[in-house]
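Section 5.1 Outputs to date
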Amino acid sequence: MKISIVGTGYVGLVSGACFAEMGVEVTCVDIDKSKIEQLRQGIIPIYEPGLEEMVTRNAREGRLHFTTELTSCLDEAEAVFCAVGTPPDEDGSADLSYVLNVAHEIGAAMTHYLVVVTKSTVPVGTARKVKAAIREELDRRGLDLEFDVASNPEFLKEGAAVKDFMSPDRVVVGVESQRARDLLARLYSPFMLNNFRVIFTDIPSAEMIKYAANSMLATRISFMNDIANLCELVGADVNMVRKGIGTDSRIGSKFLYPGCGYGGSCFPKDVKALIKTAEQNGYSMRVLQAVEEVNERQKSVLFHKLSAYYGGELAHRTVAIWGLAFKAETDDMREATSLVTIGHLLQAGCTVRVFDPVAMSECKRRMGDAVVYARDMYDAVLEADALLLLTEWKQFRLPSWEVVRRSMKSPVVFDGRNIYDPADMAQAGFTYFSIGRPQK
């Protein structure tokens, strides 16, 4: 089987590499000539465990190709996946211009039956617009070619995307015809030999499932952050509360970890887009509005704890930050808590020393020389008045606290992910603050 994937960002590149791994001949398309040239040379534009090896292997073995010309790979393709970006517009709605541009280009060049699959995260009703755009171009050419549009939202977790794609919990596919259903079932069957976990739905339901899933997960995070903040005020321990409610089979334990806010390319964007979709249909998503509000407030929680500790006197203090990416195992800083925290610290007159295992280049691209880039985690804490942990990288879990304490001006730690034990920190000689747990 031959397919094309338009867009070599996070979703497109992972999807292309994983399909190729299963024997599909894949051509990845992108208008960015420099990115395509780098991919041809084996240079991967994103950090994702296992991805570089998979791309290199499948390109070498002739199953994975890269081009800037979509028209050059349509003649033999059975399906075209659209995995281009849908960035938030100024009003929070999803910008569909890139998706519709791809649809117009397909309609202007296709020569036989195709299944056009939307893999980008798009609001309900997008498939209708994609179909209309393709039909418009076919009418302009005077052709009456058959085609199908399908929705196949992605559920990849950054840092575990390759594993998620190769062994998915489920694959959601929205289709309108048996022909499209059969083709996509055949495409995904190698991933599901032991248990066929493809959920076929109508297209609007598939489009809604993606937003509903991410919004539910975001809701659980914001709920626990609200509970954590209340725990601090009443003297409860949010870890005990989390375990107590997580053992309820109706609730479960996943995504009940409090912290300093969620970020990334999905949750913030998708929550905003679903709120906007509801507004456009005359409905108010009041729960999700609160989810978004709680999350934005939570991103500043460590700064406010730091400011309270020093009585608002932060000017000329040095603050160390461990972790810049929005989560571990990625270099993605989109909507990251670190951006908000660093902004507050710089505005307060602090010197900010940062370290992240993989996101330093991304931080430099975003912030330039506004912060000091440390050589490693211990260099970051030199002469620091406080250490703020924002990302739960594994190498931060068991540092040499004796080295950290000797290096710092003041042994104060603010743990935004609750990865340290308060009793251990007290024994190591640190003043320690976390999220939703009593002060030891």
